[in-house]
Amino acid sequence: MRRTRQAKEAVAQVLAILHDYLGLLHGLVSIIAAPQPRMLRVVAIHTSSRLVAKAAEEVRYRRGEGVMGHVLEHSESVMLERVSLAPRFLDRLALYDPESPFIAVPIKGPEDDTIGVLAAQPDGRKDVSLPERAHFLEIVANLLSQTVHLMAKLTGSRCTTSERDEPRGNVRTQHGIENMMIGSTPSMRRVFEQIRQVARWDSTVLVLGESGTGKELIASAIHCNSPRARCPLVRLNCSSLPETLLESELFGHEKGAFTGAVKQRKGRFEQADGGTLFLDEIGEISPTFQAKLLRVLQEGEFERVGGNQTVRVNVRIVAATNRDLESEVKKGNFREDLYYRLNVMPIQAPPLRERLADIPELARFLLDKLSSQQGRSLDITDCAIEVLKKHHWPGNVRELENCLERSSIMSENGVITRNVLSLAGLDDGGSPSLADDGTLDDRERLIAALEQAGWVKAKAARLLGMTPRQVAYRIQTLNICMQKI
Length: 485
Fold this sequence. Notes:
- This is Nif-specific regulatory protein.
- The chain is of the alpha/beta class.
- It has helices at about 1-20, 50-55, 65-75, 130-165, 165-175, 175-180, 185-200, 215-225, 245-250, 270, 285-300, 325-330, 335-340, 360-375, 380-390, 395-410, 420-425, 440-450, 455-465, 470-475; strands at about 25-35, 35-45, 60, 80, 100-110, 115-120, 205-210, 235, 275-280, 300-305, 310, 315-320, 345-350, 380, 415.
- The chain folds into four domains: about 1-165, Beta-Lactamase (2-Layer Sandwich), CATH 3.30.450; about 180-350, Rossmann fold (3-Layer(aba) Sandwich); about 355-430, Helicase, Ruva Protein, domain 3 (Orthogonal Bundle); about 435-485, Arc Repressor Mutant, subunit A.
- Helix content is about 45%, strand content about 15%.
- The strands form four sheets. A six-stranded antiparallel beta sheet has the order 3-2-1-6-5-4, with helices on both faces. The chain has a five-stranded parallel beta sheet with strand order 8-9-12-7-13. The protein has a two-stranded antiparallel sheet with strand order 10-11.
């Protein structure tokens, strides 16, 4: 611990000198995050803000992700004339001036492998050129090499010890919020902060947002950063089951409770005992079942189907919906008392169209995942990124993922270009289609998608970023006539 602290202090002094005397502002050093060789983590940053310094401890960059990840992957320096003109740049700390240059250089290890990245933002001085400053930073990176190598070794050793002796700390390391969810826009930083605030308590959380916005990921981040992280996280989509099966699925059943119940079965509440139960599409359950759920939330007890023995559980509830529950309460479709029980801590998952600046980072993260699945390297051009940023994305991140998977399949060399996106059915981003129109309500949007898809449910589901089962359920609940088939 002492040697690690001394190494960090030495690096911090170098960054301070760069900032105070040489006009290289907000210097940052990141190293390979043991035991993850494809991940960079920030270990030192020069800033006067304690909040930024604290937030920097959780920042990670995947290999190939953003400017920092590019330097790690290609072992080459990057010079940006202006940050705002570089789609790859990820300002996760909201620290850098978008109208100023930026430099990032590799820090090489003893075997000439890249073990870290040194980055800084030059001030407005004109007497020294950007390449000259980049060359100077490369010299500084070489001088830091031995110290950074020592930090990487000590950190790796501590990680190994922590994996053995501190299982909960290991959970937190693996499931840091920024590692689970992608985004650096103000709306996503607000979500991250809300997750941090609520994770340590047992309060019920209601995650609100459109389909495909990552509500389940928010639930996972809350669980994995909570004191319940070592206990189960159990998930259930309430809209996927009829009410009779939903009761058995949640509460379990006794042997002989109904035809086919050949033995006692624990429900999701008992499976999640001590942990977290994530109830997706909570707005779809019937008023009758709402009353049964309310009792469990109030008293923490229930009876299995076909039984009379009361079962007590200690479960944290995270619920999610794409409906406006407050409006549903006013219409009489959702119990007011249940709504207030659920709505203790609401978190709004922003739609993708309101966080378009996150698309470069999201796209490269999703392509990294697809690369692993397909066993080949995938990339996307800056022009293609601009096309993605112009799209309306009614299906949100799920639709973006589908689009990139479709495009990757159609790309023979593994590079997604503007033309590949066009072949995959994404235009250059003119006016949104009827199904993309954010002014439509759920029923109008679904009808528009069905018309656009020739009334084929599977195609409409793809347009909306939903599953065919979800589309079929909404056709039924919204009373849409399918006579046009």
